[in-house]
Amino acid sequence: MNKIKNKHTDFIKLESITIVATFFSLWLAVIFEDMIEHVMAYIFILSFGILHGANDLTLLQRTDTKKKLTRNYFKILLYYVVFVFGSILIFYLVPSLALIVFVLFSGYHFGEQHFISKTIKASFTISGLYFTYGTFILFLLFSSNYMATVEIIKNIIGYSVPKSIFEIGLLISGLSTLAFSIILILKKELKIYPIKELFFIVIFFVVFKTASLLWGFTIYFILWHSIPSLYDQIFFLHGHINKSSFRSFVVTSLPYWLISVVGLLFLLFIFRDNFEKSLAFFFSFLAAITFPHVLVIKKLNQNQN
């Protein structure tokens, strides 16, 4: 019980630090040119961004241990690698389908991370909230940076997407998030402060409108998703957060993290003379390693409920 209370207290502190860090990052977006933003974005994504999904195998093993199940580590590793390369293959063969699935998966994953500590129990309505909130954040990002988003999507699927798609997606996901939130609050299954959540959305809108597409995505992905996710994962594995537990997490994550970083750096090097195309491949590779991570985190959260 004390551990849970300490975690909740630390999470509130983390949230406050995140808000301050967000405004600081926004200030950087104002004073630096896009190229410097892009370099900083790649550094943060390749470090904290990749790291938050680099310990999935350990998390799976710990989840199985708690359920008194045993699986061969190398068998799990093989499945994981096949899943990643299968995702890359789908992006190559059917890029339109892969992109849609990536947005849907990422939307659910972002919403789950944001609300998992604020929900009482798993249910269809709560899953609906996770999905609609996360996709709303993504559509808010896309709509705020329409031209850059369209250029990246065109490099992935070969044709442009009309702005109306993003506007409709933003409207539907926003209204659906509102509906799910009201239902869950009335059922007392969601513990949030509505004004506070609206304040967060205003912050995201200002960030997405002010920063470049890549830097805006990075601010949300790192500060509002990856770092809180790292916090949850380390707490799940070690029961506390300190330098020792963080160091242990990094050590066990190192092999997969290195492989992912080398792969992404290789893509960036190949397409170094074409920023839009390099960004398209960058997000495609990021999507490929995101798919299995989303499933692992979902299983971890189910195990904790």
From TrEMBL:
Enzyme superclass (EC): oxidoreductase
MF terms (GO), sorted A to Z: beta-carotene 15,15'-dioxygenase activity; carotenoid dioxygenase activity; iron ion binding; monooxygenase activity
InterPro entries documented for this protein: Blh_diox
Enzyme Commission identifier(s): 1.13.11.63
Required cofactor(s): Fe(2+)
Catalytic function, reaction form: all-trans-beta-carotene + O2 = 2 all-trans-retinal
Sorted UniProt keywords: Cell membrane, Dioxygenase, Iron, Membrane, Metal-binding, Monooxygenase, Oxidoreductase, Transmembrane, Transmembrane helix
TM regions (residue ranges): 12-32, 38-60, 72-91, 128-148, 168-186, 198-223, 254-271, 278-297
Family to which the UniProt record says this protein belongs: Belongs to the Brp/Blh beta-carotene diooxygenase family.
Protein name: Probable beta-carotene 15,15'-dioxygenase
Source organism (scientific name): Maribacter spongiicola
Phylogenetic classification of the source organism: Bacteria, Pseudomonadati, Bacteroidota, Flavobacteriia, Flavobacteriales
